[in-house]
Amino acid sequence: MLTSLSIRNVVLIDKLDLDFKSGLSVLTGETGAGKSILLDSLGFVLGNRGDAGLIRQGEDKLSVTATFDLPKKKQELENIFNEYELDFPEDELIIKRTLNRDGKGKIFVNDQTVSVKVLKEIGRCLVEVHGQFDNQGLLNPANHQSVLDSFSGYKKELEGVSKAYREYKAAQKERENAEAGINKAKNDEEDLRHWVAELERAGTYTGEEAELNGKRLEMMNAEKILESLNYAYGALSGNFDIISSIRQSVSAIEKANVLVNGKYDNIVEMLSETLVNAEEAISEIEAASQNVSLNENELNSVEERLFSLRALARKHQCEVDELPQKLSEMQAALAQIEHGEDNLEKLKQAEQKAKAEYESKAQELSLKRQEAAKKLDSLVMKELPPLKMEKARFETKVEALPENSWNETGKDNVYFTVSTNPNSPQGPLNKIASGGELSRFMLALKVNLAKVSSVGTMIFDEVDAGVGGATAKAVGERLARLAEDVQVLVVTHSPQVAASGNHHFKVEKRTEKDVTTTTVKQLAFGERMEEIARMLAGEKVTEEARAAARVLLSA
Asked: What secondary structure letter does DSSP report for 503?
């Protein structure tokens, strides 16, 4: 619910602070007084486009601040805050938007900076603005299904259809992917069998390329390696026999160790380990020397293997180490050809089962929608005679969609139709009804949808255009009924509608010293009577008009 609106430097408004309450608030004033400026300011702070032309003459920037109590149904609003990582308020929501002469501005939601896109999403959860030709989506048939669904209360069925649709589509995609895989495999079958045989003959394994590279490097440097090994062998076992020296050292220390009661055990142990290691090293060097290949044919063989594997990898556009995986994938593709038909049949059966489940739930939902449509039609029709549309008909159509248009919300096409005369065919709202009729159809709808509305505030701009007398009184009564469920603000030229309000604001334009300013004042009872009398009588207010105004206010 809108609780306050502060406007600074917007067109004819220099400074304006308004407080609003629940119920029906009416805004009246002479044509050109500036009522539209209030709506433009509110639209601006809720995300409508703003340009420098809105800034009051002589000022550098404008600002509008709106404060809202959170709506009762706030889940959608909370989801938006979570999506954009904004802190969700505990009680009230304060939106401030500024605009400079250069077209730049800032937007704050409870002191958190947001974009115009985010502001629009937030604004749609707070306020609906209805004009004579701008009925917040009711003219767009694409929105009619969600309107009916909101009115109906079959949330469980909607969720069931949505879940069944997702499962059906998942099963369909799995079957399509398997089918595409089999078809592709069949087209590639001859190549696949050739490639599999080729890779099986290659018999490569992960790590073979590195292993071959190592062997190749070793063979290319065989002479140098052998030279180093021979030198090491000679140094250990040549004329200067290090092994013999270590043995003699061990023998000498052991003799001395006996005389000192084992005091040199550690020296004996170290020399013994050195002797063992040296002997093992000589054996290893000897074995290594024997394994060094100087065979040119063996080097050629390693290089041929390495180059053939790399050529195979290039052919299959992968690394050499990935060839075993490629072989597995191709073997699996061949297996899919051989066994895929059986699996495909199972997937087809799963898809048909999921589709049947969806159709069943969608049909159940469709019947619920048809029942809800009849109920909504009946309620709207009851509202039409008092609005002087007793010959009009309102009908909600629920028709089956073609299969390629089925979706998460079911397989129905829902749209509102009207006829304004008994012999006229039913047609779309915006094609059949005139401006005044359209507003009254919309009002009849909104009265019945108010209890399920998620917004806290509805604003009507001259919804009473083109009607008067008893019809205008009926419009006022319905706006008052609507205001029992949501806060309603209405801009009106109708005294009957104005008299229906709980709160009355008068918009005036004053000029002092060649400066024109729009002001807004909340009227007390006596002031309300005078304003309604002006609306009845025109420029010159008569006692008869005052008496009529008193009757309207007391009705």
From this structure: E
Separation between Cα atoms, residue 476 and residue 26, nearest integer Å: 10
Say how far apart CA 449 and CA 380 lie, in whole Å: 10
Q: What percent of the chain has pLDDT over 90?
A: 36
> What is the model's pTM?
0.64
Check: CB of residue 89 under 8 Å from CB of residue 110. Answer: yes
- At 281, the pLDDT band (50, 70, 90 cuts) reads confident
SS3 label, residue 98: strand
pLDDT at 137 (0 to 100): 60
d(CA 33, CA 335): 81
CA distances from 405 to 369, 402, 413 (A): 18, 6, 9
Q: What is the dihedral of CA 65, 66, 70, 76, to 10 degrees?
A: -80
In this prediction, residue 175 has a pLDDT band, given cuts at 50, 70 and 90, of: very high
Spell out the residues 6+ positions from residue 150 whose beta carbon is closer than 8 angstroms to its own: 449, 452, 453
Query: C-alpha angle 331/333/334, rounded to 5°?
Result: 65
Average pLDDT value for residue range 396-401: 95
Q: For residue 133, is pLDDT > 60?
A: no
User: What is the secondary structure of 257-274 as a DSSP string?
Assistant: HHHTTTTTHHHHHHHHHH
Cα 197 to Cα 312: distance, rounded to the nearest angstrom:
13
Could you tell me the two tokens for 549?
Answer: 């105004």
Partner residues linked to 515 by β-bridges = 512
How many CB atoms within 10 Å of residue 123?
A: 22
Per-residue pLDDT at 429? 76
Q: Cα dihedral angle (243, 245, 246, 250), rounded to 10 degrees? A: 140
Q: Give the C-alpha separation, 348 to 178, whole Å.
A: 10
Cβ contacts of 416 within 8 Å, gap of 6 or more: 138, 141, 144, 147, 394, 395, 396, 397, 428, 429, 445
pLDDT at 138 over 60: yes
Pairing of strands 2-10, 61-69: antiparallel
Distance CA 500, CA 145 (A): 32
Task: Say which residue the tokens 């609780």 belong to.
Answer: 3
Helices and strands of the chain, counted as H and E runs: 18, 15
Q: Strands across the sheet with 515-522, in order? A: 127-131, 457-461, 487-491, 24-28, 503-512, 515-522
